[in-house]
């Protein structure tokens, strides 16, 4: 019996983003702006939708696409990546203990410290890139392990398969923020994670014009039911238009990510031998301490990496001020390359080194971006 060949990743992503055909056979999914849906004469909802906070056709199409991309059974879309993370932690109980990678995105750490610790969550930060430190933290009961790999902005790498084994042996769930690598390059659920977290605002939407977040689960279990219930009750959901824009962005995700990744690695190689740069933080470089782990669990890094500028904080800020093709703005994932001095953004008490610049490589030509950085760095001596 002849079997059909497995579709390539690019083909699967394009068709996942297409949604199902509507009654008019439109190739591009229509936009459903209605906040409410009519019952029939039997007081039922023949279309399956009743109220937009509960569900919306555009959001449902997006959730189905996200589940396919990550190899999960279900996904839940939210108004932002922070709303997705918030709902994940809300599904826990006061008194539960959470082990969190110490260099997780600063907004998540601030939310935990300022909102969830006073609420009753017990949080411990560890170096999740060190399996021994993670194992030591799991010697005490924990409900959830939260990691981000590669991390933002230090580009540390957590061994996901090892972290999943440690978490499950301890009776905990493993959640992984996959925003940086995207499902194009990394599949956390296949490596043993239980839940994947996304800021869809970034690469998935891909145009700096649609805010959103998502959770994707490996199992539709009681914990997931709790997340779904909170999504509906609390209403931190994306608008139909944001869902539509994100789905549109997903259709081009694979070629965009391949371009972002190849260009970023070329720039990282160009900067790695430059004396004006004290360090290049990119897991694709063999000099990165976790290069072997990154190569084993992912096929690329994406377009974000960081550099530490020789000369310290003031030198880094001067470089940022002289760049012309890089725009000085927060976020990543769009066509435009961005630069950010993370310590300034994070404010007082930031653990990010003051000489660090985070580079978010867009879709421009690598040589043009290398030239821009060369001109912005201090003159060669």
UniProtKB/TrEMBL annotation:
Domain of life: Bacteria
GO molecular function: cystathionine gamma-lyase activity; homocysteine desulfhydrase activity; methionine gamma-lyase activity; pyridoxal phosphate binding
Pfam family, one: Cys_Met_Meta_PP
Reaction equations catalysed: L-homocysteine + H2O = 2-oxobutanoate + hydrogen sulfide + NH4(+) + H(+); L-methionine + H2O = methanethiol + 2-oxobutanoate + NH4(+)
GO cellular component terms, semicolon-separated: cytoplasm
Residues modified to N6-(pyridoxal phosphate)lysine: 202
Keywords: Pyridoxal phosphate
Signal peptide: none
EC number: 4.4.1.2
Keyword Ligase included in the entry's annotation: no
Biological-process GO terms, alphabetical: cysteine biosynthetic process via cystathionine; transsulfuration
InterPro entries to which the protein is assigned, alphabetical: Cys/Met-Metab_PyrdxlP-dep_enz, PyrdxlP-dep_Trfase, PyrdxlP-dep_Trfase_major, PyrdxlP-dep_Trfase_small
Cofactor: pyridoxal 5'-phosphate
Family listed: Belongs to the trans-sulfuration enzymes family.
Protein name per UniProt: homocysteine desulfhydrase
């Amino acid at each position: 019996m002849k079997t059909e060949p497995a579709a390539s990743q690019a083909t699967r992503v394009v068709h996942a983003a297409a949604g199902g055909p509507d009654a008019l056979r439109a190739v591009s999914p229509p936009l459903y702006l209605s906040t409410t849906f009519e019952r029939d004469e039997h007081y039922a909802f023949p279309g399956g939708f009743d109220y937009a906070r509960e569900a919306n056709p555009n959001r449902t199409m997006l959730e189905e696409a996200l589940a396919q991309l990550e190899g999960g059974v279900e996904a839940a879309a939210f108004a932002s990546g922070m709303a997705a993370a918030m709902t994940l932690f809300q599904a826990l109980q006061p008194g539960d203990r959470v082990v969190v990678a110490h260099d997780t995105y600063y907004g998540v750490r601030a939310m935990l410290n300022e909102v969830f610790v006073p609420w009753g969550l017990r949080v411990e930060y560890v170096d999740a890139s060190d399996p021994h430190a993670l194992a030591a933290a799991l010697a005490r009961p924990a409900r959830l392990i939260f990691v981000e790999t590669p991390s933002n902005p230090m580009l540390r790498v957590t061994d996901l398969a090892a972290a999943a084994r440690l978490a499950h042996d301890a009776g905990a769930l493993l959640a992984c923020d996959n925003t940086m690598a995207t499902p194009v390059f990394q599949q956390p659920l296949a490596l043993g994670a239980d839940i994947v977290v996304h800021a869809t605002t970034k690469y998935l939407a891909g145009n700096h014009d649609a805010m959103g977040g998502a959770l994707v689960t490996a199992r539709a279990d009681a914990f997931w039911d709790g997340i779904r219930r909170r999504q509906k009750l609390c209403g931190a959901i994306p608008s139909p238009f944001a869902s539509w824009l994100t789905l549109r962005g997903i259709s081009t995700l694979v070629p965009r990510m391949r371009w972002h990744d190849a260009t970023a690695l070329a720039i990282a190689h160009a900067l790695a031998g430059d004396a004006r740069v004290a360090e290049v933080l990119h897991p694709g470089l063999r000099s990165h301490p976790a290069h072997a782990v990154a190569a084993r669990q992912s096929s690329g890094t994406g377009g974000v990496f960081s550099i530490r500028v020789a000369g310290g904080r003031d030198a880094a800020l001067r470089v940022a001020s002289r760049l012309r093709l890089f725009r000085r703005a927060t976020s990543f994932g769009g066509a435009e390359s961005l630069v950010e001095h993370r310590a300034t953004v994070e404010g007082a008490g930031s653990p990010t080194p003051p000489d660090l610049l985070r580079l978010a490589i867009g879709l421009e030509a690598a040589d043009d971006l290398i030239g821009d950085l060369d001109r912005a760095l201090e003159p060669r001596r």
